Structure formats: C-alpha cells, structure tokens
Amino acid sequence: MFNWRTCAAGVSAAALLATGVVSTPAAAAADPATYYVDSVAGRDTANGTSEATAWRTLAKANAADLTPGSKLLLRRGSAWSEQLVVSRSGEEDNPITVDAYGSGARPVIKAGPAYSCVLLSGDYIELLNVQVGVKGAARCLWSGVTVEGDHNFLKGNYFTGNSAAVYIDEQARYTSVNANDFVDNNVMSVNTDAEEMGEEYADDDAGAFAILVHGDDSEISWNDIRGSIAQSYDYVWDGAAVEIFKGSRTWVHHNTSVDNDTFTELGTDREPTGETRDPDGVSDNVFEYNEIYGTRTRGGLVTRGPFKETPDHAPDVNGPVLRTIFRNNSINLPNEDAEGVVCDSNCTNEHLTMTQNAVYAAKKSAYGPGITGTANSYNVLEGEQYQLGDDGVGNVFEDPKFDPARPLQLLPGSKAIGLGRQAYGEIALNGVAIGSNGGIEAGAYEYMPAR
C-alpha cells in the first residue's frame, strides 16, 4: 500500500537539504506520566507522581494530563464517593491505564452526585482491578461504568449494587469486558406500578443489568455474573446478565451466569407504527461457550422477530433482531417458569440459529415456531415443552445429564458427548482444547471424566 506519510517525510527532507536548512534533532519525548491516588494518606497539593506524593481525590485525578501510555494508579484499601472521569485517549499499542497499587482490597469507587461512578469518554483506556459500586444507599446512582469511547478494556474488576454495572453507550465501539466479577447488580432503574399510574406504564420496567450493551462490536468474555435479578411490577422479576439493546456484532463467550433473571435479551427500538428509532438495527450477535444456571433464573436467551403473535400482527417495538447465533452453550434451569431459548414475534431462521447447545429448562426448552431445519441442529433439549417449527437436524430430546458436582459439565453417557459437528473455537469453558477427547460436544464444556 502506498505510504503517503513516508513519501511526505522524504520530500520534506529533500527540500530542506536543497535549501541548506537542516534542523537539529528534536529532544526525546518525555516518558508517559504515572500518577498515584490515595484516599487515606494522599494530598491534592502534592505532585501525584509517586506513592509518597499521591493525590487524595478523584477530582484531582480527573484533571491529570494523561497521555498515551500514562497510568493512573489507585491505592488498594482506598474508597471514593466521587466520579472518576477519563476523557483523554491512549493509542492502540499505548493505552491509558487505570489500575490498583499496594496491597489489600481493591480500591472502591462508589456513590456520588453523577449518573455513573466511572465515565470512560476517551479511547484506548484500560480499567483494571477496581471495585465499582457498593450495595445499599452508597451505591452508584445508575451505572457503575459508562463507556462512551472506542477500544476500551475492562478486566479484573468487581461490580456490585448497580442498576447497570457496565453500560456501553450507543456511540461506543470495540469495548472489551473480560474476566470481571459481577455480583448482585440488582437495582431497578424504572419500576412503575401500572395499577397506580395507568396502563401506559404496564411495560416499562427496566434495570438489574450486569452489562447493558447499546454500542456495536463489543466483546464480553470470561466474566462471572451473578444475582442480576430484582422485583418488577410489570414482569414479577426482571434483570439480565447481558442485555443488548441496539447493539450489533457483540461477541459473548465463555461467561458464567448464575441466578440472573435472564442470561441475555436482545432488542431494537421502533415506534408502535413500525418506524425505526434505530437506523442500523440489531444484528449478528454471537453467543458461544457460556454456561447458564441457577434456581432463580427464568430465561437463557430471549430474542425476537418483527411482528407480535397477535391477530393484528402489530409491530414488535423491540424487533426484529437479525441473525443471532447461539451455539455451544449449556443451560440448566430447574425454575418452574424457566424457558431456555425463546425467539418470539414471528421469529424465523432469519432471526436465530441455534446449534450444539445442551439445554434443560423446566417449562420450555425452546420456543420459536418459525425456526426450522438447519437453523436448529445438534442440540440436546429437555423440558416440559418444545415449540420450534420442527425437530431440526440431529437434535436429541432428553436430559443432557449435567454433573451436579461440576455444574454443567457432562456425566458419562450424556448424548451431548460427541454430538457436535464443528468446532467454533479453540478452547471450551473448562480451558480444554475443543475436540481433544476425539469428538465435539454439544454445550460449553469439553467432556472430561470426573477424577
């Protein structure tokens, strides 16, 4: 490819030599700064550039001159009731990093007057090893972390007590949420009583999200997500581990979801007339190698087609969601109301493909009367009801035989062992190479006999 930067530099150098004007070399750029913040022993009058001269407040840290490669280090054992804002940007190979230092518990960022405890509005920022939110009155007002910039990375953090622990804004692209712990993010942000306020409030409750995705091209992987469930006037219970609303091309893989009301629900945004409020729609989200279980969980995946299943075929204001792929996931839901995979609102093969999953859901293993043939293949499915368009290809309708001592790993004799036909990754949820036992399993785990 033609490199205009190299060409321009060469032309400029030649011109300087021809005129006899040659500049002296520029001074080497200073190394990116590292700043320290300590809520106990820090002083905002200090320079912040060492542990001994740490700042005290996040307000001071927010004003730091962060450049690509800069680090903002928060002392372990510290806690702040302020918002952390990182508005400056790093670079692809030189991000700005927010991390912990010292020993002890993670630094805690909790309630303040802001809508979000942490705001990442710049690009190429890493947020590592921090606790965001606490339970109770000191919790974050709405979200733990709001991501507005592109190419931001969250890892090793602990989130609790939020309405939305991580909110990926509509303008954000290429966010990675990797290997974090989400515990009891169970606060409703909207919870209205239609009996008191009127029927227009009968379908508006929302909240208790671990991860709420409005932006595109996110990766959500290797997280442990528990307890995103809260009481709701409209739905009795509500909440989700991963809620995707307007987000496309999200890759959700190798996550553990326990006792969240639903693992994932997807939707777009339309007027009741069918006119879109989401011009690029929602499409091409992939879920693979996730495990979903717990006695409180009522849903695995919920997605939708374009029109309600009513006589008037009114538009579903949250549909259609196109080309969702759900493969190699394990679901064990004994709750009497539990439904494993649901694709309603006249869903068809255009909207969902499910393959190589191992599913037990007490009420309904799968629902989607318009899903047929190869869009439903090589799954093990068990539940009181099964309501897809046909029996699919290569499916087995019996108990997947999960090991109670190793949740969602397989017992000997499970029909999920060797049922799969294609490896969609390199390693299964237990870290074992896919196909290493000679076959490909349905579900999230490579079969390994218990020891």
TrEMBL record:
Please give the InterPro entries that the UniProt record associates with this protein.
Pectin_lyas_fold, Pectin_lyase_fold/virulence
* Coiled-coil residue spans: none
Print the keywords alphabetically: Signal
Q: Where is this region: Disordered?
A: 262-283, 300-319
Q: Does the keyword Phosphoprotein apply?
A: no
Per its UniProt record, what SUPFAM superfamilies does this chain match?
Answer: Pectin lyase-like
Signal peptide (from-to): 1-28
Tagged with keyword Calcium? no
Biased composition (Basic and acidic residues) is annotated at 267-280, 306-315
- In Swiss-Prot or TrEMBL terms, this protein is called Parallel beta helix pectate lyase-like protein
Q: Which organism is it from?
A: Nonomuraea fuscirosea
